[in-house]
TrEMBL record:
InterPro entries: HAD-like_sf, HAD-SF_hydro_IG_5-nucl, HAD_sf. Pfam families: 5_nucleotid. It comes from Goodea atripinnis. It comes from the Eukaryota. This is 5'-nucleotidase domain-containing protein 3. Keywords: Hydrolase, Magnesium, Metal-binding. The gene is NT5DC3. Belongs to the 5'(3')-deoxyribonucleotidase family.
Length: 330
């Protein structure tokens, strides 16, 4: 039965190979007749092979060995194959980016399902950064007020006043490791993007990051929840909204000050103090009073938003506003 077993095994491998090739070819049928497609297919089709099953690759590189010889190939040949795959991946990515950047309209609204806005009767709007567009001065205002709260109310060092808001330091969506005091970018699969990890205002070497986290993957149980909140046991806080930019910058600046002056501190308490200071800027109405005192400085007139509201009203649509900003301020 041994020869039969080997034959069945070989048949299964042959079938699997043909199935993968069939799927690969089927996936190309819907692509438009584009120079990018033809070049991509020619290069990628070489990767669809079943050498282990004894099936000859459909399109071989010049001088390539047959299936039996490939099994006995050296590690250097395997390394060459890996380099070819990486080269193919990078070239495909480059061409894809060219297509994306040249054909996507940044003003287009994308939806997961087909939808006619004509059929929608009621429209809801947020206020902050939706109907109300704030200038860059607002982030500087929030940073300065929260920094002064740390100094005046929490007795943080006066030297912190030397730090100013850095507009381009952080972006929305970053994660902050509360216990390690590290700011970083984590992708949708919970992998730390190496090269994006900062301690204070300075990047952390990739080797150190990998050593600290025993790799680059962050377990789900220590991530913040869907809304970016860091609850009990969650040490990774995600900053989800635009108002978070001054908070991330202030956290990094305070960390930087303590490290520069060799001051021992507890990262968890630092995070809580900065979070409380930022909260007071909003909850105690400090930011709202400052904006009301100089509306021209902090709020831009939304000409396009105004046109949308007028159009909706003219077509008899109902509209509502939902916000956690104070009523008198709105």
């Amino acid at each position: 039965m041994a020869p039969l077993s080997r034959s069945l095994s070989s048949l299964v491998k042959h079938t699997g190979c043909l199935w993968r090739v069939g799927n690969f070819r089927s996936s190309q049928q819907g692509l438009p007749n584009h120079p990018f497609r033809s070049g991509w297919m020619k290069k990628n089709f070489r990767a669809v092979s079943c050498v282990g099953a004894g099936v000859q690759p459909l399109l071989q590189q010049p001088g390539a060995k047959n299936g039996a010889a490939s099994v006995r190939s050296s590690s250097s040949e395997g390394q060459d194959a890996t380099e070819r795959l990486w080269s193919l991946y990078k070239e495909t990515k480059r061409q894809t980016e060219v297509i994306c950047t040249s054909s996507v309209d940044p003003d287009t609204i994308f939806a997961n399902n087909e939808m006619s806005l004509r059929d929608i009767e009621i429209y809801g709007f947020d206020y902050d950064y939706t109907l109300a567009f704030y200038s860059s001065h607002l982030h500087t205002l929030i940073f300065n007020i929260a920094r002064d709260i740390l100094i005046n109310n929490h007795r943080y060092p006066e030297g912190l006043r030397k730090y100013e808001y850095i507009p381009d330091f952080a972006v929305r969506g970053l994660h902050y490791d509360v216990q390690k005091a590290l700011l970083m970018k984590i992708d949708a699969f919970h992998y730390i993007q190496l090269g994006t990890v900062y301690r204070g205002l300075h990047p952390v070497p990739d080797e150190e990051v990998i050593a600290m986290y025993e790799g680059s993957h962050v377990p789900l149980e220590i991530m913040s929840d869907f809304y970016g909140k860091s609850t009990h046991g969650h040490t990774m806080k995600q900053f989800m909204d635009i108002f978070s930019l001054p908070e991330m910058t202030l956290l990094s600046c305070v960390n930087d000050f303590f490290m520069r002056h060799n001051i021992d501190y507890e990262p968890v308490h630092l995070y809580k103090d900065v979070k409380e200071a930022i909260r007071d800027v909003h909850v105690k109405g400090i930011m709202y009073r400052a904006v009301e005192a100089d509306i021209e400085k902090y709020i831009w007139y939304g000409e396009q938003s105004h046109a949308v509201l007028k159009k909706l009203s003219a077509h008899g649509k109902k509209m509502f506003l939902i916000t956690n900003s104070p009523f008198d301020f709105v």
